[in-house]
Structure formats: C-alpha cells, structure tokens
Amino acid sequence: MNISTETALIDKSFTDIDYLSTDFPLTNLTEEGILYEVPTGLVILLAILYGSISIMAVIGNGLVILVIVKNKKMQTVTNLFIANLATADVILGMFSIPFQFQAALLQRWIFADFLCSLAPYVLTMSVSLSVFTLTVIAIDRYFAVLHPLKPRFTKRSAVVVLSIIWLISSVSSLPEALYYKVKRHYPSPDVVVPCCSMEWPVHPPNFAKIYRMYLLLAQYLLPLTVITFAYLRIGCHIWLLEVPGIAVDNRDNIRTRNKRRVSGFN
User: Fold this and answer.
1) Mind listing the pLDDT tens digit for each residue in 159-182?
2) Where primarily located (predicted)?
3) What's the pTM?
4) How far is CA 15 from CA 32, 38, 147, 149, 259, in A?
C-alpha cells in the first residue's frame, strides 16, 4: 500500500470525527464561526504537503499505468492487479485527498456541495479497491508458490475478478455519497458556516454501526487475516524448504524460482 492510500486511511479516521457536525452545540462556535484558531503558517504548510502528495499520486501512478499499457510484455496478470492499484490511487489523488484536510483546518466546507458527497465516496471506494486488490495479489502469489500445478489466474479471469472488485467497492461505498451532506450553521445572524458531515438515516436502526462494522471487517480485519496467512505460508515454504536427495545447488535454484513467483516474475 503506497503513501497516498496510507494518507487516505489516516484522513478518513480523522475526518470521520466530524468536528463541525450538528452533534456539537452551536454555542461552541465564536461569532466568526470557528471552534479553534489554526495558525496561517500551519494551514499553508499542510496545504503544500497534501498538494504534493496528490500530485505525486497522480503522476507516479499515472506513469505506472502508462508503462503497463504501452508495453505488452508488462501486461501480465500480476501487473494487471498493480495497474488496478495505481488506478485507485490516481482517483484518490485527484478527487479525495485535496478535500480531506481542509474542513478540520478551515472549519468550514469551501467547495461545491456535490463534492461533499463525492470526496468521502471516492475515498472509501479507493481504499476498498486497494485493499481488495492487495488481497487478491496475496492469494495469487500463495497458489503460485505453494500450489504451482493448480490452475492460476489468466488475464481473462483477472479482468473478471477486478470487475467484481470494482462493483463491490462502488456499491458498498454508496452510503458515503448518500448521507454526507453540507449543513449550514448560523453562529450569528451575519455568519454562515457550511459544514460537510454525515447525516445517517433514522431507519433502519443501527445502520451507521452496521456500516462501520462492515468497513472494519471488509477493509481491515478480513484482508489482514488473508494477507498475513498467505505470506506467512509463503515465507515458511521458501525459507524452510528442504528437498531430500537433491543437491544444495538444486535446492537453492528451487528457492530462487519460488521467490520469483512471489514477486510476480513467473
């Protein structure tokens, strides 16, 4: 998982706090519509840092996609998965990261209302895309090393799997688009403070808890379990491999081939 995705995960946990949601009493706002003072220098510094991350995410991952598209030799199953990771990060860098930090610093939503729904949706979808793709890569490497004679992903089956990943990620992220809305607070008659925050539906009850639990399981616990299991088994197989009756040089050659399978060069 690269820097832009890790930044997105941090941002999501940070912005989900909803500092300016209606859960806070409006009496906490000053007449200027702020909760706390943020030094201008800090705002500028973070804007530069986040802007740099966005630009690097778009350019760097865009180059990865370009190399894979232009070079037929690079269009392997593993590289298709890598291209999907890069695509998710390009989308993240363009449509999510630039908007994630500003609400907590500026303490108001300064962009168009539709971006209040789009940015969280893209963030959640991109994280799901990246995590699910990393999980599939781990499964593919597991079978390549431990079960080399069993059928592997073909390009066609890889495209089908990636299509399913996109479908699940897009649909499961819809609550972010549906329930994030711009709310306008009035700390004083002449001051309007627009805020982007989640407004969960009353029915069905406990929908918010169920959805957050789904994200915890789907984006973290289950992928972590699968990836950890796969690579631990691969590591044990490679480093503890002993083949009776075969010379040390031949055994080392087998280990080298297995390492190449793990890296995708097979």
Assistant:
1) 999 999 999 999 999 999 999 998
2) membrane
3) 0.77
4) 22, 16, 43, 47, 40
Provide the terminal-to-terminal Cα distance of the chain, rounded to the nearest Å: 22
The CATH superfamily holding the domain 3-263 is: Rhodopsin 7-helix transmembrane proteins (1.20.1070.10)
Tokens 């379990």, located at residue: 225
